[in-house]
UniProtKB/TrEMBL annotation:
Residues 14-31 have a biased composition (Basic and acidic residues). Gene3D superfamilies: 2.60.120.40. It holds the Pfam family C1q. Keywords: Secreted, Signal. The keyword Signal applies. It comes from the Eukaryota. It comes from Chloropsis cyanopogon. Residues 71-129 form the C1q domain. Residues 40-60 have a biased composition (Low complexity). It is found in: Secreted. Residues 1-60 are annotated as: Disordered. GO terms for cellular component: extracellular region. This is C1QB protein. The keyword Signal applies.
């Protein structure tokens, strides 16, 4: 015959750990609040040169230069005529027998040759009658 239930007994000791469960899928939490700005970093290497800028405004004129010797100029010029009525030989320079002007002696009438001894641009003209 059942009697009256008694008082509850003391709790028992913990049981053994069970087996590990299956690995769950990782999920990320919400983005946190940004932190405070950190200290400046170390100085980096020097960069490449930038593109060339636009030219600046024109500067003031420079000082006046020293006076030059305007009377000294290098010239080379000649003027000659041919009074001989015979034709010059073929494939040969034309020799002029009458020299009118021969500055600095650059025309050699013996050979019918003008030798340029002053650098520059020369302009030759002739008149044949």
């Amino acid at each position: 015959i059942p009697g009256i239930p008694g008082l509850p007994g003391q709790p028992g000791s913990d049981g053994r750990d069970g087996e590990n469960g299956p690995k769950g899928e990782q999920e990320r939490g919400d983005k946190g609040v940004p932190g405070l700005r950190g200290q400046p970093g170390k100085v980096g290497p020097i960069g490449l040169p930038g593109p060339v800028g636009i030219p600046g405004i024109r500067g003031l004129p420079g000082p006046k230069g020293e006076a030059g010797d305007y009377k000294v100029t290098f010239k080379s010029a000649f003027s000659a005529a041919r009074s001989i009525s015979s034709y010059p030989r073929r494939e040969q320079p034309i020799r002029f027998d009458r020299i009118i002007t021969n500055e600095n002696g650059h025309y050699e009438n013996r050979y019918g040759r003008f030798t340029c001894r002053v650098p520059g641009t020369y302009y030759f003209t002739y008149h044949v009658t």
